Task: structure prediction
Amino acid sequence: MIPEPAVWAIILLPLGSLALIAFVIRPFFNRAARLSGYITILALLGSLALSGWALKSALGHEGPIGFTLHPWLTLGGPTSATGFTFRVGLLLDPLSAIMLVVVSGVSLMVQVYSQGYMRGDPGYSRYFAFMSLFTASMLGLVLARNLIMLYVFWELVGLCSYLLIGFWYHRPAAAAAAKKAFIVTRLGDFGFLLALLYLYFHRASFVAAGLDPFDIADLHRAVATGAIGGMVVTWLAVGVFAGAAGKSAQFPLHVWLPDAMEGPTPVSSLIHAATMVAAGVFLVARLYPVFVASQMAMNVVAVIGGFTALFAATMGLVMNDIKRVMAYSTVSQLGYMMLALGVGAPVAAIFHLFNHAFFKCLLFLGAGSVNHATGTFNMQFMGGLRRVQPWTYATVLVAGLSLAGIFPLSGFWSKDEVLVAAWRGGTAFSQVVFWLAMAAVFLTAFYAFRMMFLTFHGQFRGGVEAEQGGHASGEHRVHLAESPAVMVFPMVVLGIAAVVSGFLANPVVDLGPIPKHWFAEFLGGALGETHPQKTSLGVAVVSMLVALGGIGLAWAMYGTRVLSPQRVGRALRPLHTLLTQRYYMDHLYERAIVSRGFYKGACQALEKFDDNFVDRAVNMVGWFSRNTGHSVRRLQTGQVQLYGVGIVLGIIVILAVYLIGQ
Amino acid sequence: MLSAIVFLPLAGAIIIGLLVRPARWVRYVAATVAVADLALAIWAFVLFDTSVPQGLQMVERADWISAFRIQYFLGVDGLSMPLVLLTALLGMCAVFASWHIQERVREYFVWLLVLQTAVTGVFVAQDFILFFIFWEMELVPMYLLISVWGTGRRENSAMKFVAFTFLGSAFMLAAILVVFFSVHSFDMEALATAGLGRLLVPTRVVFLFFFLAFAIKLPVWPVHTWLPDAHTDAPTAVSVMLAGVLLKMGGYGLIRINLGMFPQEAATLGGPMMALAVISVLYGAMVVFRQSDLKRLVAYSSVSHMGFVLLGISSVGAAARGVLNPVGLNGAALQMFSHGVITGLLFLLVGLVYERAHTRHIPHLGGLASRMPFIATVFLIAGLASLGLPATSGFVAEFLVFVGTFRVAAWPTALAAFGVVLAAGYILWMIERSLFGPQVARHEGVTDASLVDAVPMVALVIAIVAVGLYPAVLTNVFSAGLGPIIARFGP
Result:
């Protein structure tokens, strides 16, 4: 069994790497910035090794391993209904163990790749410092046993994405995208915060049962024993889901993720695969018993997830920026995970998260590699790259097939489980989301292969030089060649994972060392889903055919150009415009609501009110007292006679009042 | 001990005023005094015994004007102690932030140190008259510092500040006198523990008199308008002191006097107080968005953030309904400290930016992060702390306020908590416009922070992060002092 300090070390190693870079390398050895990369990679290697040990311990242990709780902040009596206790502790169970491996493994690959991608950037050390903190925060989030602790890491993950999306802060678009990501996710976090407050609101029920409301294990127990129930659970789940929807970019809070492209590509890769967006799905899975206890909350999750899966996929159809296609793809795939959670299949959701992490990370690294060669992310100016970048092409093709859900690649297995779960969900909602998800399968296959054909097939269309009319700046140049080995190596590793992770982790037959349905058995117990999903050949075949149909259409339009994309676009012009304008949602949020309604409306009105009314009222008081002073001063004539009259009058008045009072 | 902490800056001021001849030595003497005072305050903080359940520690008591039973009576409890530490910390930062003052250096430092004595005195005085003297004493240096070393419409702003505070003080003096003529005592501790009994004037009126005085200082909407003006025109160090500690005098007074001595009234008027708090939070936050001057922006954000203090204070009133709730008030006290260090740091940074870029007009800034990475980094940390990012003190304090208040009044708390989302908006927007983006040609020559500038920045960042990571270091002290006050609300 893994000892507690070793589990802490999973989080502390990358934190130590941050400290070392920030306080030693950056100030004193900035010339040797490459050290920062090595330090980060070493730390993550350590984390990965320890994560493996943690996974092994979780495998050999019945039920979750709760480590010692350390009292951190106590107010009032720890057991009184009005006190407040915050105890820090770690929770290692199958869910967190699997997430640990995914996060540290994917992050490690991204860091190796970054050494090549970020080479020569003036912010090299800063980049790896932020990446270390990013990984550490995500690992902390995964291991947290206490909801407040989870919330702390949750926000730190948000902070790091802010810092990394805005890494090139001198670019206005990057600075704006970073801000947008932080604010939109914080809007969701507001719901999470309210859920925490609401949880404390019911502290008395917990304390009566000897439980701590913020302790995740205790919360599960409270739901199981009925210490809390009914609408309380529903509100709790909805609040938590608001936070999860913000982080996991679910409709209507999805708008930040496509803009997050402004960060360096490996950052996008990490955000889209293992950190940040995965946090939302993880959170719902982490508090799964709470969600299960409320059918209403489950329906919300399923419908939002299913809708997002289709909605985001439609926008992915028309984007020309390769990273934007991927971004909408991620939003859509996260929708699949959410809908799986909503229809009662948490194992399928986490399984999809697991597989998606590898192939989506790879797709982004591939986009970075392509950008390395062409200097642009605009697919209009790519083409024909399979000849110059065979390794990139091969690995991205694997990832694309996996994303499309083609047998026997990893995406097939988990997407199939999600679809089956929805098919067998048994409620009207799950039927609806099944068809949404099935439609999205077609679109996914289409946009994935539209991307493949535009990028790697056909003739090269000039890269950044053509895009900028021959005025390529020094920073971006066309340099048609395969990326360096340090970038290709992680892509190959991830490519292998994208091929086998689905089949090997959760095989449909016994594979010797790996028993049948290993993943589902391991995780299912922890998530209260004891019976592994039955596979359905019918659903599998249909979804495969649908996906092949999508690929076929993409081939027809962008491979052979039998169908001219321009003609199709013209024929469907209103729809095409709606999609390229992203359903005008950014427009609505940024221009109508924030700029016009809030900034120029409410805020300006209050500002005017403050200046013209509140402040003026105060000045009026000053003016009034000064003028009173002026008028009263005239009475101070210095003539004793006048004062005498005053005194006499005063006495008469007092006497009169006294006598009347009598 | 306490007398030393209180009067060391005054002694330093006298020495500077009378003895230190070469003007260039002045700042060294001031720095020595400020650092020594901070060391004393830290020592006192360490000596403070949190295991003593209640009552004052380090008491110094002597008859002063026995005819009126006025005493020289100093003491600290868990509420005062962190605020004394805060004052000493920010006092030191203020001295370092004034390093580049060129005009009438001697007088400047004299008044700055006098200010520190006055504010520290407010937090440790346990006799009403002594309290009032320190309270008023703070006005003189503030008036002079703003009107002589300030910028813009400085005389006007200084006058506005003084007029507002005076208005409040007049009500406070009246209230103190009513209390004295009713129970013949100025002893704040005895008055609080024994209860006031029947007063000559209805208790509610006395309560409201005190409340007005402290609400102006805090400041609470709608008596906040002196704050943006005073801040905008004050020199950097004075803004630091003003936002960092002077506003805390209001919160301190509310807790010590309004809650501590008038639990019944505080419970009855909890609702209106909470309404004012919520308005302050949201109103302040929304007006922030419209500000284009960095200092005014931070000033209005103070209105919003100090609203959280009032929110936590108002939550205690519900104790009368049978729920003794220490969390919200502890959060409010912690928020006072936290806001002190965070906003102190923000004003310090705005000062540094202004010194270099010669403008605080946000549209004229931009791209500064490339020119001054260290200042920009610290600015970012301070901004993130101000928007309540976990691992900074701002998060812990606001979270505790919300947790404590939500139990009592869920909807008002939810509304106020939205202030945190708004804070993310205005802080990040401000940072984006002033620090990020392409470099601006007019800021070609700006330089990063010097070593002297870095001292207070580093000190405050350490304070912010330390409290954020391990808040118990302060909450243990605060709750020792707040416990007896909350207990008075018991059934």
Q: What stands out?
A: Chain A has a mean pLDDT of 86. The beta strands of chain A are 65-66, 70-75, 84-88, 91-92. The longest strand of chain A covers residues 70-75.
